[in-house]
Amino acid sequence: MKKRLLSAILLAGALLSACGSDSDVASTNANNNEDAKKVVIGTGSQFINICFYDEDGNLTGYDIELLKEIDQRLPQYEFDFEVMDFSNLLLSLETKKIDVIAHNMAKNPEREEKFLFNSQPYNAVPTHVVVNEKNTDIQSIDDLNGKTVGLAPTSNAALFVEDYVAKNNMDTKLTYITSTPDILNQLKTDRIQAIFQFPFSVEIFNRESDAQLKLVGEPLIFSEIFFMLNKQDEQLAADIDEVLVELIDDGTVKELSEKWLGADFSVEL
Fold first, then answer.
1. How far apart are CA 253 and CA 260, in angstroms?
2. 16 and 115, same structural domain?
3. Average pLDDT of the segment spanning 106-131
4. pTM strictly above 0.90
5. Is pLDDT above 60 for 37?
């Protein structure tokens, strides 16, 4: 029961990519070069399989393990991880308290105006329509006409669905929910009929919270995921890109994707 409680608490951050409020710093200890430039990676601790603490208290997940691999191949840098609340990441980058954000970050115009994204995406996560496992009425996004759907505010999925509903003149009620337990409960009790999620998140919710979810239809979008840096850090971004290409080509990204995300999404890169 303790394990389930811990998992449920961690899952609460997954829909919103929201991290814990405690700040913590950990070095990868990947390089022993005393002249290496320190790079502080801002990340979170409650996005299961992306950036989270395992049962032994180790910071791990797809983003974390990928960055450790990158650090190993860039001896001129030393990566340190600083864990903080998701809401503090952008401000910390802007004020140069951290150098990189790693938290499953996708591009949007506001972010691109203020910050630098590296060029090579390191993930391309598919978003699906997700319904209760007993629901047989909804097979795709076009079946959401006349239904109520739950959205995480400002998420890429929300932006996509808002646009799709408007362009197709759909009579779909959009309700915005900030709590993961709440949105799962509303779906289970049919107060909403659909949400939008990643396949690996659905698997975790079903396993750890008995969420009774299923994916329907084809992927709506593949959100390309990048690291975020300050505008002046073009050299760091270029160095990261060079290694990312190597890691994609040699199968490391494929291996990490299969381990943490349940499928090889490197083919989308």
1. 10
2. yes
3. 93
4. no
5. yes
Tally the domains of the chain: 2
**What's the token pair of residue 242?**
């060079």
Tell me: do 137 and 111 sit in the same domain: no
Domain residue limits at 175: 125-221
Residues 7 and 114 occupy one common structural domain = yes
- Answer yes or no: do 23 and 110 share one domain: yes
The string of pLDDT tens digits covering residues 52-97 is 999 999 999 999 999 999 999 999 999 999 999 888 999 999 999 9
